[in-house]
Design a protein that fits this description.
Chain lengths: 287, 283, 317
């Protein structure tokens, strides 16, 4: 073997390894900094008291609650269309590849819309058109539409993995298509919806741009009442505003604490979806 | 798996909370980041003592607050600049009622290296030169050889309008100029202190003399005036501005409670606490 | 030998109302599609005053100054382009390198660990990236790149660097998938002909995975184009920065403005009541949508090419 080939044989994995190392050290740095600087501020008091002095003191309870309310609403908004689109894509369009591709394209398209465009749309529709004030529902709806593709794609993956022999057996038993859907398709793949929901919740929890105009205020909101003029506090918005004021020493420690709490919340949801996702790969290999 | 479903169930259940609460009218306050600290603390007190629901937001600064009031997205607007014709023209149906709760000044601040390089004051001509990018090095102004980095404020900031009023007479006459933009007072401080040769303008209490340094203003007769209490009160210092809370029509209901509190002794104490001048301090 | 069916199927003899599932699905899909189309239509309609006022100079004029009703988006298009390109140039090599390692050299267990590790980058919310950018990246760029004499730590380059880290996981994961979808038989054949592993990767696997990797990069680009909060915090937000020489590094190390940083900033709050200003903001949003749409469409097309390329199945067993 020539020298150059020998060099290449060593160089490629070395270079690739360096790249992977660079990426992983970025991960380590981010998590490390968050833990180092944020852990000190996060205690039970921090998680359960109200913010005081514009973020320099107190805790983040209503920010956490606001985020939870937003993502719960987003879930409620996203599940019905995701189910509809998922079932349509796999069951009703199984013999129409072009239409199925159109549905895929639709999901891709929604997934790719920048979050700020959702925010502007929300401003346009909910504030201008409907004449609502800042509203938790507006934010929830926007977030729901944003994470809809995540749910739908996860469901579709699971639906597509349902073994044909189950369907054929059910058809052989004389079940109607609707019965097959509820008895076989959904029974076998509803975990896909759970997975997608958890991933979607993780994503929705961290989004700032959609709630920037239509839901979030910096202080004063507690639990919403009514639909119009019911703003919320939210972790991402809180961090966004304070990030521009990072000079205030008192607020800085709390800022890191809030960032840590947000990342942990997102990670929780992401991790919760892991067992189900790993399961999927296992099963599709054995079929 | 069961844990995942349980988690999901809890989250969905939480979504039913919002509909199960009684109505309580919320006072929506929005606007200037300069007035924000005072109103924020006042709101904390009122939420506790009088059980008022008050939400505060500062997106968009003074102009954002005025616009919010005009669009009926806010009940009270906070502003660090007086209302001008453009505001009234934009919202002809709104009866803007501005209540002054104190007075503040705008200081020109520079970073440590500029201050220690010998620049301690500027006059309007020099600043106009900086604003229009005609003067680009501190050497031209008596300092060291260093590029001037001017941080302008976002459009709509009350502080910006006060500056251009001093430089050009009114905001409409300000020429187009392109500089990096900063937002709230804290952000100005953070960026100026971290950049060599930096200059910007900020609400006076934020010029702490440790991280950023306030320049004096040279008047036409050559004397230098600083942003000190008496000079602000008398109006000698050119960049002073009243701090306003604005309502649509006479203040009523929760807005009246808030404004009365701000005008009371306790409220005025808050004004002083944050470094501004109380109404009583003005002649 | 009969198959054993899940109990749910056997118990499904209960009567179901016919076809309600079909109709509700159709309704769900219809509602979704209609609302999206309606939203798009609203955007277009609201941007009409701008077209009347400014016409096509919206995208060609460099000056944006709302008090004088000048709405030229060229400088922001430039800013968006530069920031995203910097992000791609920095992220793609690292991502492809990391994916080569995970797809070609690592055993399955380690591969999962590395992939999951890098995917954690995707789990960090963009506002936290913005925070890290403000507190760390800003200082590093300002003090580290003194050779380029930056005005401040906030610049197009800083934003591009931050974005590179943010889109890294997307490109890595998808490139890894693309490489893995090249059949093992191809690599075996190459090795059988005497190529080393590295050569097999470079000359056999990588070229075949290229469309997939390209699609991954385009998806990363789409994400970079649309990122708002992180870019807003570190880009400097200086309007009308259209340099004489768009390719000079000095231009990139200066503060700038992107479509997203303008949209996410205070001007949107101010524009809300003024019809012309508001339609200009909507115009920016549409422009952004258009740019992202191009990227997504291109990625979509490439993915189709990747799927349609005939590959021999694993029938050799």
């Amino acid at each position: 073997m020539t020298v150059s080939r020998r060099i290449l044989r060593l160089l490629l994995p070395a270079a690739a390894g360096l790249c992977a190392l660079a990426a992983l050290s970025a991960v380590a740095f981010i998590l490390g900094v968050l833990l180092l600087r944020g852990l000190g501020s996060v205690d039970w008091v921090f998680l359960t008291t109200d913010t005081k002095a514009a973020g320099a003191a107190g805790g983040i309870i209503f920010q956490i609650l606001g985020t939870l309310i937003l993502i719960a609403t987003a879930l409620a908004v996203a599940v019905p269309p995701a189910l509809a689109i998922g079932l349509t894509r796999v069951v009703f369009l199984q013999n129409r590849p072009r239409a199925a591709r159109a549905v895929d394209a639709l999901l891709h398209a929604i997934n790719g819309v920048p979050s700020i465009v959702f925010g502007i749309l929300g401003l346009l529709i909910f504030l201008k058109f409907f004449d609502w004030g800042k509203s938790w529902l507006a934010g929830g709806i926007l977030l729901g539409v944003m994470v809809l593709p995540t749910l739908a794609v996860s469901l579709v993956e699971r639906l597509a993995a349902v073994p044909r022999k189950y369907i054929e057996a059910a058809a052989g038993l004389g079940l109607t298509r609707e019965q097959i859907i509820s008895a076989v398709w959904l029974q076998q793949s509803w975990t896909g919806l759970i997975t997608g929901s958890l991933l979607g919740l993780a994503r929705a929890a961290g989004e700032t741009a959609p709630i920037l105009f239509v839901t979030a205020v910096f202080s004063g909101a507690t639990m919403p009442d009514g639909i119009r003029d019911s703003p919320l506090l939210a972790l991402p918005y809180h961090i966004f505003v304070l990030a521009q004021d990072t000079f205030n020493e008192d607020a800085r420690a709390n800022l890191w604490g809030a960032a840590l709490v947000l990342v942990m919340l997102v990670t929780c949801f992401n991790l919760a979806s892991l067992p189900l996702r790993l399961n999927l790969h296992e099963e599709s290999r054995h079929v | 798996m069961k844990a995942a479903t349980l988690l999901l169930g809890v989250v969905v259940a939480a979504s039913f909370f919002p509909v199960a609460k009684a109505q309580k009218p919320t006072l929506r306050v929005s606007g200037s980041t300069t007035v924000h600290p005072v109103v924020s603390e006042a709101a904390e007190v009122l939420r506790k003592d009088k059980d008022l629901a008050i939400t505060i937001d500062t997106a968009g600064g003074s102009t954002g607050g005025i616009n919010g009031l005009g669009d009926r997205r806010a009940d009270v607007g906070m502003s660090s600049r007086p209302l001008n014709n453009a505001d009234r023209k934009k919202f002809p149906l709104v009866d803007f009622h501005a209540t002054s709760i104190g007075r503040d000044a705008v200081s020109i601040v520079v970073s440590k290296d500029v201050w220690e390089g010998g620049v301690k004051s500027l006059n309007a001509d020099q600043f106009r030169g900086i604003y229009e990018c005609k003067v680009t090095n501190w050497q031209e102004l008596g300092g060291e050889d260093c590029r001037i980095v001017f941080f302008n404020k976002e459009p709509g900031r009350g502080t910006w309008e006060v500056l251009v009023k001093w430089l050009y007479g009114n905001p409409e006459s300000a020429p187009r100029s392109n500089h990096p933009e900063v937002g709230a007072n804290e952000e100005v401080r953070s960026k100026v202190s971290g950049t060599r040769g930096a200059i910007s303008f900020v609400s006076t209490p934020w010029a702490d003399g440790q991280r950023v340094f306030a320049l004096g203003i040279q008047k036409d007769d050559g004397s230098v005036i600083g942003a000190t209490g008496p000079d602000i009160a008398s109006g000698d210092y050119p960049m002073t501005r009243p701090l306003f809370v604005i309502t649509n029509g006479e203040p009523a209901g929760a807005a009246k409670v808030l404004i009365d509190y701000l005008l009371s002794d306790a409220g005025q104490e808050l004004v002083a606490k944050h470094g501004y001048l109380r109404l009583a301090d003005l002649k | 030998m009969t198959e054993v069916l899940p109990p749910s199927v056997a118990s499904c003899a209960k009567v179901f109302r016919p076809r309600w599932i079909l109709w509700s699905c159709a309704l769900g899909v219809a509602v979704t599609v209609t609302s999206l189309l309606g939203a798009l239509a609203m955007l277009l309609w609201q941007s009409l005053p701008l077209l009347g006022h400014q016409g096509s100079s919206f995208v060609t004029a460099p000056e944006w100054y709302y008090p004088e009703k000048a709405f030229g988006a060229l400088a922001m298009i430039y800013g968006t382009t530069v920031v995203s390109l910097i992000a791609l140039v920095l992220a793609v090599p690292v991502a492809v390198g990391a994916s080569i390692l995970s797809a070609e050299y690592l055993p399955p267990g380690l591969r999962l660990v590395v992939k999951s590790g890098i995917e954690m980058l995707a789990g960090v919310p963009s506002v936290v990236y913005g925070l890290l950018g403000v507190l760390f990246l800003r200082e590093w760029v300002y003090h580290g790149l003194t050779a380029f004499d930056p005005i401040s730590g906030d610049s197009l380059f800083t934003a591009g660097l931050l974005l590179a880290v943010m889109i890294l996981p997307t490109i890595t994961t998808l490139s890894d998938d693309a490489l893995r979808s090249v059949p093992a038989s191809q690599r075996s054949a190459a090795r059988g002909l005497g190529l080393t592993r590295a050569e097999a990767v470079l000359h056999v696997a990588l070229p075949q995975a290229a469309p997939g990797i390209l699609a991954a990069s385009l998806l990363g680009l789409g994400r970079a184009l649309g990122e708002t909060v992180a870019v807003f915090l570190v880009v400097g937000r200086q309007d009308n920065q259209l340099p004489g020489n768009p390719f000079s590094p000095t231009a990139w190390i200066s503060p700038g403005q992107t479509l997203t940083s303008k949209l996410g900033g205070p001007e949107t709050h101010i524009a809300y009541g003024d019809p012309l200003h508001w339609s200009a903001i909507i115009g920016l949003a549409l422009l952004l949508l258009l740019l992202v749409g191009f990227c997504l469409a291109a990625a979509w097309g490439l993915e189709r090419v990747m799927k349609r390329t005939p590959m021999d199945t694993e029938s050799d067993s």
